[in-house]
Structure prediction request, 288 residues.
Amino acid sequence: MPEPLIHASGVTRTFGDFTAVDDANLTVKPGEIVGLLGANGAGKTTLIRMILGLLPVSEGSVHLFGDSPSRTTRSRLGYVPQGLGLWDSLTPRENLDFIDQAFGVADTPLPEALEHLRRVPVGQIGLGNQRQLAFAAALGHNPELLVLDEPTSGVDPLSRARLWDTIHDKADAGVGVLVTTHYMQEAQQCDWLVLMSGGREVGAGSEADIVGDTTALNVDTGDWPSAFATLTDAGFLVSLAGTQVRVIGAERDAVREALGGGDSVNVSSARATLDEFMAVKERARQQA
Prediction:
């Protein structure tokens, strides 16, 4: 078995009385896409910073390429932080030239889609274009590992699909990928998932492994807006799939009773989605 590119075990980070990450475990192997999923504030970025050695761990251990995180180990990876790590006042070409010098490589190609913007300051080229440039900068030194913190946040669906194409191409070439996202639908793009809520790991494995036997209830009624409002007011965890009302973490009889129990309401069971599983975990955390 190849040595893991990332191995984090029992990692905890506290800031005074606040625990940002609590006993997290994560492994990334060559050619594997690992998705670190969770809502904003779940602890994903803090964990990433500990993995990179940019923030010390309070407890636990982290290894990059089998060693402690350091400038040497970081030189073997490509990192796209949430803030992208670009200089707004420099042009795309100037940004790449600067980063190439830092890694000791020459002439990372500018993405073809950005050629017409090569002399425009990065602060003026739009977020989707900035994302493409940040990817090019991270890939210029042929890294063995990619660490991507919310790489598709704030970009349009087409740009998001193109970025994921790039991620899959690199994984197919043997590059390990750790990617954080709060878009649960992107879980299908990953080989392995680690879900976080409130700083804790609440699930790991494939989407099917994580959801397991967690179910939701489909509520079929002619007046779905009224049903949605009634169930929400009653304190149920409710979502909408189009005009389909779904209730998570509730008993069928309780839902029917809340809606008046008439024959016009049909309540059936269905497999929960990853979003719904996370909603259940988040509510349980808040109520603990």
In short: The mean pLDDT is 87. Residues 157-172 form the longest helix (16 residues).
